[in-house]
């Protein structure tokens, strides 16, 4: 949401090109995210996990109210230089959508490579498993935490900036995806990148196929019934790590 | 440690609540001590959340009217000069919140009139407004709000069933008889569809697809539209807030839909235009309510100009209707010789309509019917060759 607003403000107020605006937005939201880590989540590191979540919801409400204060409650429109319509065979699609798909895949691959192949990525994974353990083997946990939050903020900015031309920019736009994102994470298993990808596909496909072949009015029910079924058999999510905790 | 934290989590909101309650009761000003007396009007509507934009536009109309009236030295009732004040509370579009807000407004500020721009909130307030004696100034074209026999409800905009005839006739004649219906999933949208579809079929049309779109959950309308367009409709029935509705129309065009749109009265053609690239080209063949800026009532140009100056954008009908309503209520209070008794004021609304100065007539409202609905000619507009033209309805 914040990412979309910053991209939009860059484009409208300063007349910067869409792509450059997105890059600026990634940095700004990344920095905001790091600040939040320092101010909110770092002091809570010793607290039970539920308090992180409460804090996250608090931040969500705060940012939403802040956006309404700064930019107003109105629907804003983000234009994109890529809104040509392309028809391939019987398939009609806009260029913006193709860009979204390609960027999403690229970013996913880059993220996965970063987590698996770099030292920094390995540190993040180590810290996610056990903060004290990571600290013991010489990982600077503060630095890693900040980098993690920067990446998370940056990814959020990319996502918001790319999808807003399809929809609209308004303070409550995050609600559209937040529940779905949560479902996807649970479905795929906490902390697993392939799980998140697969979870996303499962949810997306059931919604679309359910809407087409059964009824659009029931698509949420179909998706959530599937969620219940999957969780009945795999309570940890599809790709949950075998970890004892 | 954990307990202490938990306790503080609980305590902080409680303290905040207490502070809020104190702040608002301290700010109570139904009648200030000096020479000028103040009449407080109430408002409960969505000021945060997905419908915040809509709520704010309605509130702006009220605020503009109040500013003007107070700027001109207030108004005189029974030899005493009064000024106006608005007390606005956020209900996030929720009926239960609207009811709670109304209780608060009546108890704390003794508001004789409470504005609310959504049918759910209006109905929730109708449960007790007669006992608590306040007028509900309801901004909703839902006919049900004035069919309950509530003696203190005013329905400001025209009821939507007045649109069925001209919308059906025009679209069927210009595009054909196959209709796909994808209104918004709200109660209001469903009621609209339930009124339109039988009418369409009675007029000899065929409903080829029926579903709905949830603007608070759906990020992308391609799936819904692909399914709707599968059955080759000539006309799409869409509606909801202007901006997402415009996106829906735009995506329908992207998918190659060449027919017409019937647009629910909640969405406004001029606001939709801004979303789809500041041109009516994409909306060719749409039929909907006449946008305020294209209306030609005596008070419209003046209001549009003032609004543009103040907010730097075009006003919609929400602002216009609320603006004119405040003036009507002021005239009604003058005619009633009373600023507190809701029943007296309500009984003189017709006088208020008759006495309304011409330059304030942003809309020309002829009369109030026995159920409390404002009666006026329904204005319908269609997009032809990229321009808004008026369609005359019988």
From TrEMBL, chain B:
Residues 1-18 form the signal peptide. It holds the Pfam family Peripla_BP_6. The keyword Cytoplasm does not apply. InterPro entries: BCAA_transport, Leu-bd, Leu_Ile_Val-bd, Peripla_BP_I. The keyword Signal applies. Residues 39-384 form the Leucine-binding protein domain. Keywords: Amino-acid transport, Signal, Transport. Belongs to the leucine-binding protein family. PANTHER family: LEUCINE-SPECIFIC-BINDING PROTEIN, PERIPLASMIC BINDING PROTEIN OF ABC TRANSPORTER FOR NATURAL AMINO ACIDS. This is ABC transporter substrate-binding protein. It comes from Pallidibacillus pasinlerensis. The lineage of its organism: Bacteria, Bacillati, Bacillota, Bacilli, Bacillales.
């Amino acid at each position: 949401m914040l990412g979309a607003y910053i991209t939009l403000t860059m484009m409208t107020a300063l007349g910067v090109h869409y792509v450059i605006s997105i890059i600026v937005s990634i940095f700004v939201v990344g920095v905001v995210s790091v600040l939040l880590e320092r101010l909110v989540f770092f002091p809570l590191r010793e607290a039970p996990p539920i308090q992180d979540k409460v804090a996250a919801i608090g931040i969500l409400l705060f940012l939403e109210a802040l956006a309404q204060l700064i930019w107003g409650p109105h629907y804003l429109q983000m234009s994109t230089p890529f809104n040509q319509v392309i028809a391939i065979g019987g398939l009609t699609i806009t260029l913006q959508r193709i860009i979204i798909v390609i960027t999403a895949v690229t970013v996913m691959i880059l993220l996965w490579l970063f987590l698996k192949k770099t030292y920094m990525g390995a540190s993040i994974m180590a810290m996610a498993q056990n903060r004290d353990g990571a600290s013991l083997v010489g990982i600077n946990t503060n630095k890693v935490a900040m980098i993690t939050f920067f990446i998370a903020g940056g990814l959020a900015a990319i996502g918001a900036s790319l999808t807003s031309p399809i929809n609209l920019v308004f303070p409550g736009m995050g609600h559209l995806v937040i529940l779905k994102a949560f479902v996807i994470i649970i479905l795929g298993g906490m902390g697993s990148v392939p799980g998140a990808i697969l979870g996303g596909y499962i949810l997306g496909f059931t919604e679309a196929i359910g809407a087409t072949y059964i009824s659009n009015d029931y698509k949420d029910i179909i998706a959530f019934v599937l969620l219940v079924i999957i969780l009945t058999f795999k309570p940890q999510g599809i790709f949950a790590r075998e970890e004892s905790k | 440690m954990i307990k202490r934290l938990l306790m503080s989590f609980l305590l902080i909101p409680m303290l905040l609540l207490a502070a809020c309650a104190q702040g608002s009761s301290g700010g109570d000003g139904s009648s200030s001590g000096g020479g000028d007396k103040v009449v407080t009007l109430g408002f409960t509507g969505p000021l945060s959340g997905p419908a915040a934009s809509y709520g704010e536009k309605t509130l702006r109309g009220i605020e503009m009217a109040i500013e003007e009236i107070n700027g001109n030295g207030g108004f005189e009732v029974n030899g005493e000069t009064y000024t106006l004040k608005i007390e606005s509370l956020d209900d996030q579009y929720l009926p239960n919140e609207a009811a709670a807000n109304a209780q608060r407004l009546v108890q704390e500020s003794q508001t004789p009139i409470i504005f609310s721009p959504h049918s759910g909130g209006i109905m929730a307030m109708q449960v007790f407004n007669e006992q608590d004696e306040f007028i509900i100034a309801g901004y909703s074209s839902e006919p049900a709000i004035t069919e309950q026999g509530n003696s203190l409800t005013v329905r400001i905009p025209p009821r939507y069933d007045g649109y069925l005839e001209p919308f059906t006739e025009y679209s069927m004649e210009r595009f054909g008889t196959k209709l796909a219906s994808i209104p918004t999933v709200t109660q209001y949208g469903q009621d609209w569809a339930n009124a339109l579809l039988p009418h369409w079929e009675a007029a000899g049309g065929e409903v080829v697809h029926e579903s709905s779109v949830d603007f608070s959950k759906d990020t992308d309308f391609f799936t819904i539209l692909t399914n709707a367009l599968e059955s080759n409709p000539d006309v799409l029935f869409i509606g909801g807030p202007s901006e997402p509705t415009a996106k829906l129309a735009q995506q329908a065009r992207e998918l190659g839909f060449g027919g017409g749109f019937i647009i629910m009265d909640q969405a406004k053609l001029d606001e939709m235009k801004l979303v789809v690239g500041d041109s009516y080209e994409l909306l060719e063949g749409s039929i909907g309510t006449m946008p305020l800026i294209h209306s030609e009532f005596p008070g419209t140009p003046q209001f549009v100009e003032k609004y543009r100056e103040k907010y730097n954008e075009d006003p919609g009908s929400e602002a216009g209707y609320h603006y004119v309503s405040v003036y009507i209520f002021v005239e009604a209070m003058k005619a009633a010789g009373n600023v507190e008794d809701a029943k007296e004021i309500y009984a003189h609304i017709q006088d208020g309509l008759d006495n309304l100065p011409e330059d304030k007539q942003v809309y020309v409202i002829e009369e109030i019917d026995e159920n409390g609905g404002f009666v006026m000619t329904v204005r319908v507009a269609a997009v032809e060759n990229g321009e808004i033209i008026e369609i005359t309805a019988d």
